[in-house]
Amino acid sequence: MHIRSTELIPGKFEKILGLSLPERTDRRDMLSLVGTFFDIKIDWMDAVKGEDIDKKAWSAVCMTFSVGK
Fold this sequence. Notes:
The chain is an alpha+beta fold. It has one domain. 30% of the residues lie in helices and 14% in strands. The protein has helices spanning 5-8, 25-37, 60-63, and strands spanning 16-20, 42-46. Strand 1 (16-20), helix 2 and strand 2 (42-46) form a beta-alpha-beta unit.
């Protein structure tokens, strides 16, 4: 018996977002494979590394933490 993910929790999620660095194709491949198995569509967004974000864009709270260290 095949149960679609939409039958398990109908209407609970508008969409599922996958977030990963563009160069980490291994993570995208793994999540896509799992999504296919469970009949779940994943919309992908590209992540960015902390050091690639201009310091002016960080809030004062985030500036107190060392990103990526």
